Amino acid sequence: MTREKTALNDIPRDRLTGPLRRGAVKKHVAAIHISGKLTLLQRKLSNVLLLNAYDTLTSQTRHQIDARTLCLMIGYNSNDIETLKLALRGLAETVAEWDMLDSEGQQEWGVSALLSFARLKGGVCEYAYSPALAEKLHDPKVFALINLNIQRRFTSGHALALYENCYRFVRTGSTGWWPIELFRRLMGVADSPYYDEFKHLNAKIIKPAVAEVNKTSNIVVTPEFRKMGRAVTDVRFLISENPQLAILDLDDGEGHRNSDIYARLRGLGVSDRLARQWIREHGETVMGKRLDFVAAQGDVRNPVGYLTRVLRDDGSEVSPRNQAPAAAPVLSDRARRLERIRDLAAARTPTQRDADRRLFLARLEGAARDDFEKHGWMSALNVKAIAAFWEEVSPGAFDGLPEE
After folding, report:
1. Which pLDDT score is estimated for 20?
2. What stretch or stretches form a coiled coil here (predicted)?
3. Can you tell me the mean pLDDT for 122-132?
4. CATH architecture of 17-247
5. Domains of the chain: which residue ranges?
6. Is the pTM of this model over 0.70?
7. Which of 29, 177, 269, 328 has the most CB atoms in a 10 Å sphere around its CB?
């Protein structure tokens, strides 16, 4: 992926992150850790918040996501807002500390709360990061991004912490050696005397966490230990890709990056996220035909904008330059309603769009579900249900349009 975007991972600000390797720098350049332990809910929450804010981390000071989407994306199907408040408070009270080399090779130390601000109001969660932490979180050479589809499968905070701290090393095949003291901090058990004894750490933390990572995620980890005398002093994890990944259907669009259609879209100037979204929504065959159509128009002033119009109009022949059609067609009531739905969906953030689809799919079954999975919000079998859903999401969305 262009900048390792599988759903926000590694220390999405939460939790400490052990030795990191930065680009071509072949040495230990960073150690990021937190002042306290994060629960499984808090870890998942911090990852979703980071993914939602990632594209505007350094350009916006505050970020928003609706609470329903937030709960869905962390697999928290509850209306217990008090628990969500406690989780947000925990992130605001947890300190992240980093000690790393900057781009010029100078040592940099810093500390910041994981969240500098959080508020729940009107069903919306608004939150912010400190500028310094936002800069670190946005650096793809320091942080890897975790696939949220995988994250939601975890039931243990220790397993998720192990996954986050191993996943960024998947390309190198090993985490490198971690002192046992550092590993205990990474797992959030440094303050528990019980885990000072390695046999307890191995039986209660390492073995169960390794088993869940290997069963649940897209990587397989194997622990190795180094001893001094009879005492275990260091641990490392060998990492390989999980061959069950395709069966588990955990891909959030990563596979599309290997296709020729994706390469053509990127070559045209389409963003990574939009390219994957279009391939997912329209399929490679349709996208190939639309790209061929655009290419046949010759020197189009704004090829991405023109392709957007072609997709919007379902491939009908659109004027490639600035010529307007001789006469604008009169849209039917249904077409106007579908156009409104398309605009509503397009206005949502990528995280929200994913949550919207999941929420609506949960209401469907049989042929209706199949049709929606194929055609999305333009599904003819689900017109009324889709309209009702968007009216719930955005009350008054269809004001001014005739009833169907």
Report:
1. 23
2. none
3. 91
4. Orthogonal Bundle (1.10)
5. 17-247, 253-329, 332-404
6. no
7. 29
